[in-house]
Amino acid sequence: MAEEIQNFKVTIDGIPVEVAPGTTILEAARRIGGDIVPPAMCYYSSLEGSGGKCRTCLVKVSKGSEKDPRPMPKLVASCRTTVMDGMEVMNVTSPDVLDARKGVVEMLLINHPLDCPVCDQAGECKLQDLSYEHGVGASRYEFHRRTFERIDIGEKIQLHMNRCILCYRCVFVANQLTSSRQHGIIHRGDHAEISTYIKEALDHDFIGNVIDVCPVGALTDKTFRFKNRVWFTKPVDAHRDCPTCSGKVTLWYKGADVIRVTGRKDEYNEVKEFICDTCRFDTKKTADWIIDGPTQISSESVIASNHYTALQPPAVIKDNPALKEANVEQMARSERLK
Ligand code: SF4
Ligand code: FES
Fold first, then answer.
1. What CA–CA distance (Å, rounded) separates 62 from 27?
2. Domains of the chain by range and CATH?
3. Is residue 56 lining ligand 2, measured as CB closer than 6 Å?
4. Cβ-based neighbours of 217, under 8 Å, separated by 6 or more
5. What is the DSSP string of 184-248?
6. What is the model's pLDDT at position 163?
7. Which of 19, 205, 250, 256 lies 20 to 30 A from 291 at CA?
8. What is the pLDDT of residue 270?
9. DSSP assignment, residue 94?
10. What is the pLDDT of residue 195?
């Protein structure tokens, strides 16, 4: 008989959770859900090798494990640190973490232009959210920001290198979803940039997913460019019988017109199923799709004005009868809204 694997007991900001050995602190926090989940600008659960680049997910390990309770000497990247049995982690309850996160945001914004009023990503930009939550009102930076020669990476995708935070997600998409890769990060340090090097167009069945994974407005959809502010659009889930991908998408309507097609995203802004470029760029008529219903948008998002979401109980509540009992009213409400 196979030996039963013992879960590890971990506490994050005082909330206990049990997870399988090998789980990262970030994924353990996502099992709990809510405000204690560290923000992540480079980690992307479905992209192998992602994480460890941006440091926004830093947390404090105040107790290493049951066997060795010594705290870890420095803050650690929760997306790259796996849990130990008995580990105690502090995220929003640690002033050190909040202070360090403020520093990380300031660092990310050193070279990021204040393009929000003209950037298509505004309203969906994770750096924008992070700055509101952890940033400071003014910059202390007095030098010229980095700028780059504009390069053309094809008809469908627009690259604004000045906005890139070098999270590597788009590189992982190209590595893992397409048959060959034409772009990457060239040079290092202050000179590092996303580039095709010999100015090739990015052209693959799934390359459009770089737009969805980019946490900022560095890679945007040329076919949607400047068409509308995202909070004036109406997102609707739809599907079609696609021979290349799952065909499950979100259609973004302006009046009766579909002005953008994207993958469907989860509460952590990660695409649930990557979609092909035909679904994304070439099927923009309502007649191409079977409509499933309005997209659920977090009530904290600016896109949520006039949309309401049902309660999404964190996994620990769903699995625990006592917590389910305590949340019975909200659970009933979410059932009614389905
Ligand atoms: S272009 Fe976007 S996805 Fe690619 S590394 Fe830069 S910020 Fe990340
Ligand atoms: S999300 Fe952990 S380092 Fe970027």
1. 18
2. 8-106 (3.10.20.740), 110-226 (3.30.70.20), 228-307 (no CATH), 309-338 (no CATH)
3. yes
4. 115, 119, 120, 121, 122, 125, 160, 163
5. EEES-GGG-EEE-SS-PPP--TTTTHHHHH-SSTTEEETTTTTS--GGGSEEEEEE---SSS--E
6. 95
7. 205
8. 96
9. -
10. 81
Residues whose CB is less than 8 angstroms from the CB of residue 332 and which lie 6 or more positions away in sequence, other chains included: none
Protein residue with least CA distance to atom 8, ligand 1: 167
**pLDDT given at position 304:** 76
- What pLDDT, on a 0 to 100 scale, did the predictor assign at position 273? 97
Minimum-distance ligand 1 atom for the alpha carbon of 165: 7
Q: In what order do the strands lie in the sheet with 88-90?
A: 15-19, 8-12, 88-90, 58-63, 76-77
User: Are 99 and 107 contacting, i.e. CB atoms less than 8 angstroms apart?
Assistant: no
Both tokens of 91, joined, read 């995220």
Q: In the block, which residue shows the tokens 């739809």?
A: 238
* Positions of the chain with pLDDT under 50: 308
Q: Is the dihedral of CA 221, 226, 230, 235 positive or negative?
A: negative
pTM, two decimals, is 0.86
Residues, the chain, total?
338
Q: Name the closest-CA residue to atom 1, ligand 2.
A: 40
Give residue 218 CA to ligand 1 midpoint distance, Å: 6
Where do we find the tokens 């998002």?
301
Measured in whole angstroms, the distance separating CA 51 from the mean position of its chain's CA atoms is 11
State if residue 57 touches ligand 2 by the CB under 6 angstroms criterion: yes
The tokens for 270 are: 């990660």
- The strand ranges marked E within the chain are 8-12, 15-19, 58-63, 76-77, 88-90, 157-159, 184-186, 193-195, 219-221, 234-239, 248-254, 257-263, 290-294
SS3 179: coil
For residue 3, the SS3 value is coil
Specify whether the CB–CB gap between 245 and 274 falls below 8 A: yes
53 lines ligand 2 (CB under 6 A): yes
